[in-house]
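Hey, I was hoping to borrow your eyes for a little while. I've dropped the whole record in just underneath, so have a look:

——
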Amino acid sequence: MKLYTTEKIESFRTRRMRWVFNYWPCIWCSGGKVQFISGDFREVHVSLKLNIRTRNRVATVFGGSIYSSIDPYYMLMLMEILGKDYVVWDKAASVKFVRPITKRVKCRFLITEEKVAEIKHQIEMKGEYIFDLPLHFEDEAGKVYATFTKTIYTADKEFYKKKLAKRK
């Protein structure tokens, strides 16, 4: 189920991946739910709501659930988009809790064609590239509940192998 207006559609493969993600223990236990994965992996929609798995002592969504529900997707999306000739790692993340979550919120992961071109260009020039991608949880009215910055490391696989060999 799309949470945002988009022209993109799911493929059979991404629909199956969505189902697997939602029953994968580390994602299911976070309380987050993958609602949509576009067939080209450039867009993912995730929702989170207050329930027995996410509730903290003060009856709001636990901060760990808020972060863990968005954690893996940018890395996984880029792994699919860039392919096997590239290495992709989550490098760092920051989160700012703006207001307590007591109802359903949603988050949109979007990687544009321009961003992919920039990543490939930077890797072509330097062998590796580290960059930030922003995110936020919002309700249906657009009120923001948490903001995130994900720092992603990408590299050419051969460059990365040589870099690791130098460490030894």
About this structure: The two ends are 47 Å apart (CA to CA). The mean pLDDT is 95.
